[in-house]
Specification:
Keywords: Cell membrane, Membrane, Transmembrane, Transmembrane helix
Helix content: over 70%
Mean pLDDT: 86
InterPro entries: DUF3817_TM
Membrane topology: Multi-pass membrane protein
Pfam families: DUF3817
Main location: membrane
Order of helices and strands: HHHH
Amino acid sequence: MKRSVLTRYRVMAFATAVMLLVLCTCMVFKYGFDRGADLTFVVSQAHGVLFMIYLVFAFDLSSKAKWSFGKMLWVMLSGTIPLAAFFVERQVRAEVEPLVTGGPATVRA
């Protein structure tokens, strides 16, 4: 497996998790203090796009790592739970990194 598969997943997991935290903060301001409805809309749209990209990269990683359906589903759903993506990404990195470094060496000419 290429390192780029893991790197893409990690970047999108971090971006999705950060945007979800920003979205939660915006929702508190929107519904708790009646402020920032426009910002909440923009942040929710950005998070939605990033989450769709995250799902594609998580599926790509899960298919290359040959995970079970349950594990793949858990990794994909972690992008919807605030703070969960940070912890799941760390576990995924620890599990997948040996597959990346332990793979067969390629010879470049």
